[in-house]
Amino acid sequence: MLEVSERYLAKSNSWIVMVSTKNASKGLFERREREPENNCLHKRLFPDYTFGLDKIYTREEIALVQQSPSFEREYNLKYL
Questions:
Q1: CA 33 to centroid of chain Cα atoms
Q2: What digits encode the pLDDT tens for the residues 31-58?
Q3: Global confidence as pTM
Q4: Hey, is 53 helix, strand or coil?
């Protein structure tokens, strides 16, 4: 996937956006995260739940989902 998408970097001022919920480590996203800044072709953003707090999530909603076993992975950017 990455090899194919990176072919478009120089074409038409394109953007490649990869979005995912973290799962098991050692995958594509973790490899991109660990890539040294001077070798990385991508701008890496890590918006956890605090990015949307009081914007798209209320504090009450976050308090509720914090009770879920998947909270750390889904909202707090943690691998399994």
A1: 9
A2: 888 999 998 888 889 999 999 999 999 9
A3: 0.72
A4: strand
